[in-house]
Amino acid sequence: MAKDLNVSLEFALHSLSSGFLMIDLQGMIQFVNKKGAALLNLEADQQHISIFKLVPGMESLLFFEEKESISEVHIGDRKVIFNHSPLYSKGELCGISALFEEEKYYEGLLKELDSYKNLNLDLKAIFDTSYDVIYVSDHQGVTLRVSSACKELWGKEEKELVGKSVYELEEAGIYKPSVTRLVLEKKETVSLIQTTKTGRRLKVVGTPIKDENGEIIRVVNASRDITEVSRLQSELNEMKQLIEGYKKELNDLRSRTETETQLVYRSKEMNQVISLAQRVADVDSTVLILGETGVGKEVIANYIHKSSPRSEKPFITINCGAIPENLLESELFGYEKGAFTGAVKQKLGLFELASEGTLFLDEIGEMPLPLQTKLLRVIQEQQLVRVGGTKPIAINIRLITATNRNLLEEVKKGAFREDLYYRLNVIPIKIPALRYRKDDVLPLILHFVEVFNQKYMRTAKISNSALDVLQEYEWPGNVRELQNIIERLVVLTEKEMISQSELEGLFYPSGRRESKSVVVNNIIPLKECVEEAENQLLQLAKRKYASTSEIASVLGVNQSTISRKMQRLKK
């Protein structure tokens, strides 16, 4: 806009039908429009000469007074009327501007003069009301004109800036950096953020105005106050950071809520497992989850992922024992087009699909030895090569593995690589079998009853006698077996209350035992076996009877004996 304004002003002066010039105190012509040059018989190379040499007697007529005046001179055989006005810089007289015309056209000149004055007023109005603050300097960086808003932006009145060098003003700290200086140095348009002595921030675009020879004659700056915008942007950035913080907290809370609804437990054994899982969630260390089939290894792996910084990224799972050996490699690492018959297009493996997230390899003990070697290399180098490919691909994943096997025994038998075992066994998490955490059986039963009631729109309940039987069962299939049995009961029961009789035939053979039967699963020292049986018997009695006297009566011993043994159990 500033460039258009300057060009419009010069165009308007050259478009006047009357002559117009500006001279300094020595009478040297500083500017003359086309009509003025014609009236003064000036050639193109005579623009900067003294007016006194061109017009005899002009010196005696031009009184450098602080008022407008009119003079009549003869130029050749023409009588020319000069209407001249004083020019000021820094409050001091520095020259004269004049409109002039042959006498016969003077009436038209007066009209032109009015037009010139109106144009000047219009330009001043544009300067002062423009959304952008206009700042005009000459080719030496001297301020020629500036919008009236300069006081608010730079702390200086217009008269305090006009006539001052931008170099001087920059050094005084009125504004930094000087856009005009940079335009004069680079000889091209410059755009930057400027700070002022008043603490404002301005978006400034400086544009060079060049003559026909490509020399800079003016620099016009358009400045826009963005102080408030910058403050709002800063506040917005702070707000975004705050929102991100709240969002993370909300996601963490949602994640904890979601996972906690899946993690149903009451036992101290499972509390220790969850506590360890929470601690390792924030780091990328490889985790090896150990436990029997059905104890919930994938649930714990998912809990770790959801609690980790990678929670928004993929959680990919694969059962290494459920996929044929010849397919497992391409599933894990992907393949290139044409790698084998049927590979008609490129396929990404699970390592790539889990990028920036978590890859869970369940039943890692089932992985064939050749694939174990490749897996070890991928873990060590953090990159892979697709089947049929040659280009290494960097990966960024969190690896969690799980097995129901004793991997150390597998290592001794040569079925599992020892170096891979130590790579995977960075942080082991062992999930106890359900029979070793009896306190979790009841909450799991109640949880699954509620889940399947909602799923199948039932209102089934379990009787106390049925609950006693379910709690006494050893659950060789662990949580998965418990879940399946509860689903079967909810679906098949014809009554609202599930009774003990409906449990017949549902359990794993030899898994159900009567309240007085003893099941021995492993060979252990006799003393330990007796002690373990006694502990289980006391715990069962404690759940069934409210007082130690009742327990003593049922077990056929003294109450003091029961009290002493109960104290031992608490330790």
Mean pLDDT: 80
Tally of individual helices: 23
- The computed structural class is alpha/beta
Low-confidence stretches: 510-516
Report the sheet with the most strands, covering strand number, pairing sense and barrel closure.
Answer: 6 strands, antiparallel
Across the major sheet, the strand order is 7-6-11-10-9-8
Q: Can you give the helix content as a percent range?
A: 40-55%
N→C terminal distance: 87 Å
Rg for CA atoms: 47 Å
Which helices and strands occur, and which strands form pairs?
Blueprint: H1 2-14, E1 19-24, E2 29-32, H2 34-39, H3 51-54, H4 58-61, E3 69-75, E4 78-89, E5 92-102, H5 106-129, E6 133-138, E7 143-146, H6 150-154, H7 158-161, H8 166-171, E8 175-176, H9 179-186, E9 190-196, E10 201-210, E11 216-225, H10 227-262, H11 268-281, E12 287-290, H12 297-306, E13 315-319, H13 325-333, H14 350-353, E14 358-362, H15 369-381, E15 383-384, E16 393-394, E17 398-403, H16 407-413, H17 418-424, E18 427-430, H18 441-456, E19 461-462, H19 464-472, H20 478-492, E20 497-498, H21 526-544, H22 548-555, H23 559-570
Parallel strand pairs: 12-17, 12-18, 13-14, 14-17, 19-20
Antiparallel strand pairs: 1-2, 1-5, 3-4, 4-5, 6-7, 6-11, 8-9, 9-10, 10-11, 15-16
What does this structure look like?
- The protein is of the alpha/beta class and 571 residues long.
- It is built from 23 helices and 20 strands.
- The strands form 5 sheets. The chain has a 6-stranded antiparallel sheet with strand order 7-6-11-10-9-8, sandwiched between helices. Strands 2-1-5-4-3 form a 5-stranded antiparallel sheet. The chain has a 5-stranded parallel sheet with strand order 13-14-17-12-18.
- Strand 10 (201-210) and strand 11 (216-225) form a beta hairpin.
- The chain is elongated.
